[in-house]
Amino acid sequence: MELVYLVLSSIIFFLFFIRILDLYRKRRMPPGPTGLPIIGNLLDVGPKPHESLAKLAEKYGPLMTIRLGSVTSVIASTPDAAREILQRNDEFCSGRNIPDAVTVLETHKVAMAWISPNEEWRTIRKALNIFLTHQHKLDTLRDLRQNVVSGMVDFLCNSGKTNVDIGKLAFAVALNMMSNTILSQNVTTYESEDIGGFKTAVKTIMLTNGKFNIADIFPILKPLDPQNIRGQSKTGYDWLHKMTRGFIDDRLKHRESKLSRFGDMLDSLLDYAEDHESDFKLLHVQTLLMELFLAGTETSSNTTEWAMTELLLNPDIFSKLRDEVTTIVDKDGIIQEAKILELPYLHAVIKETMRLHLSVPLLIPHKTDAQVKLNNYIVPKDTQIMINAWAIARDPKYWDNPLMFNPERFMGSELDYKGQNFEFLPFGSGRRMCPGIPLAYRVVSLMVASLVYHFDWKLPYPKEEMDMSDIFGLTLLRATPLLAAPIPTHIAEWVDSGEKRNI
Ligand code: HEM
Ligand SMILES: *[C@@H]1O[C@H](CO)[C@@H](O)[C@H](O)[C@H]1NC(C)=O
Ligand SMILES: CC(=O)N[C@H]1CO[C@H](CO)[C@@H](O)[C@@H]1O
User: Could you report the per-residue pLDDT of 228-262, keeping only the tens digit for each?
Assistant: First the structure.
């Protein structure tokens, strides 16, 4: 009996203590909705956080505090607030909270996306940037990427005008574009459900990482993994870990044999590892390989799918884009990556797609590594920081007619996604900004240009009926896949197999 009293009174004391702490904190933190005990603002946030947080920001302002379980977050909802965090206070606002789902192996401890911005993190970014920021290195592999796109065009020509799930196809193509850039090989095909398991592994991980995990806001639940999120995530990670290990082993053997080099990203990373043995090891290379597949595939393919969605809804824009692409097509019908990068209208279409349909609407949450002053608020160490880039990108204060898909707004404008314009942050800004921009731009451009130039598309239903709603994950997905039938425009001999393909 006494034990029960003891336990009960401790609990009451504990709750009281938390409450006091809470009141004390609130005085210096940005304003926010009062939450319920224990769960905090969970019910205010709901299943579409980018939307509900945008609504709450109308009431509480550009910087607001949201509490979910034991996690306190500050949310920025205007370009100025984003600048205050990502530019003026970047140094102490660039940490990460590590989601439970990514902790299944030990690799998160050396993963660029999850470690604090320390020396090790800088080394990893440097190793990757050597490849990504040198135009000619990226250029060396463009034939491989073009072959991947030719493979996609062949596949579509053979699909016999039946409906194709454009997102699924784009995912497989993006995966092969990544694998060709990283290690000069294809890892999937377009016909099969999933030969080799690569697609499944990447999708499984992205899906589980994007799920709301109760253990992330009540860390005490972590060992229980109540939604089996870590469990599911583990199957994907284990598989990817094994595959990347194999790729690296093969490549090391190849390098020993002194055969010709591939000159791809893996070679570049292994070179760096040889030159910087003490701080960039094979474990870093392997972890980075895994991260690149995860970070680069679904973001690029979902952007491509949204671009196609908008283009099919806006036939004028579609034909204007095709006219532009037509000007750079070779005699043999090949679209060269190098020439694509110079097409202003294509670039505008991709920017406009990224503005309206951000792949990562709240960016990847940051965390304060020290107490910081944001405007006039004092935000303690270890506070989560989120930027509602989605809300900022469709706020009528900064955009005319924000809900209209209008690539023209980017024509002749300096506005870019490289982190200088805080009203447009599809890749974030500051030290944590996406390092993959140059590659993402090539991959998405090549896919969109090819889909637009080589095919007319027929929707299976009137375009007014297209479902534009989206559901929330780590990336924004279309709630229903975009289906359309490709009708080859420029290719004389396509085989009408008539059978419905599965991709
Ligand atoms: C359309 C395609 C893409 C979009 C929209 C996108 C967007 C983003 C965003 C919003 C972040 C988080 C920034 C932040 O924390 O503030 C990020 C981080 C990251 N992205 Fe991308 N990304 C794309 C493609 C790629 C590609 C192709 C790669 C691979 C080369 C890549 C690699 C990464 C990595 C490694 C990080 C973590 C960086 C860090 O935490 O230090 N991304 N990306
Ligand atoms: C990858 O597949 C495409 C066809 O889909 C093919 O043209 C290309 O040669 C393949 N690349 C490699 C490196 O095997
Ligand atoms: C609907 C669509 O094709 N978009 C893709 C975006 O990423 C998710 C990841 O699970 C895929 O399931 C979607 O297919």
Answer: 999 999 999 999 999 999 999 999 999 998 778 89
Distance 499 CA to ligand 1 centre (A): 38
Mean pLDDT for 202-226 is 91
Query: Residues enclosing ligand 2, CB less than 6 A?
Result: 144, 147-148, 150-151, 180, 184-186
Measured by CA distance, the residue closest to atom 7 of ligand 1 is 427
488, containing H or E segment = strand 483-488
Residue 212 scores a pLDDT above 80: yes
Residue 492 has pLDDT above 50, yes or no: no
Instruction: Copy the structure tokens of residue 181.
Output: 């850039």
pTM assigned to the model: 0.89
Given this model, what pLDDT does residue 472 score?
47
The region of weakest confidence among 67-71, 270-274, 483-487 is 483-487
Write the CB contacts of 293 (distance below 8 Å, at least 6 apart in sequence): 175, 178, 179, 182, 198, 202, 240
Q: Helical H runs in 116-257?
A: 119-132, 135-140, 142-157, 166-183, 198-210, 214-217, 229-256
* Ligand with smallest separation from the Cα of 167: 3
Q: Is the pLDDT of residue 493 over 50?
A: no
Q: Look at residue 40 and tell me whether its pLDDT is greater than 50.
A: yes
Q: Whose CA is nearest to atom 6 of ligand 2?
A: 147
Contact 305, 479 (CB under 8 A): no
Domain 23-492: state its class: mainly alpha
Ligand 1 centre from 417 Cα, in Å? 12
The per-residue pLDDT for 8 is 76
Ligand nearest to the CA of 287: 1
pLDDT at 4 over 90: no
> 103-106 long-range contacts, Cβ below 8 Å, gap at least 24?
103/230, 104/230, 104/233, 104/234, 104/237, 104/238, 105/237, 105/238, 105/241
Q: Residues with Cβ within 6 A of ligand 1?
A: 112-113, 291-292, 295-296, 299-300, 303, 359-360, 363-364, 426-428, 432-436, 439-440, 444
Where does ligand 3 bind, in terms of residues with CB under 6 Å? 167-168, 171, 203, 206-207, 298, 302, 305, 475, 477-478, 481
Number of Cα atoms under 13 Å in the Cβ half of residue 210: 25
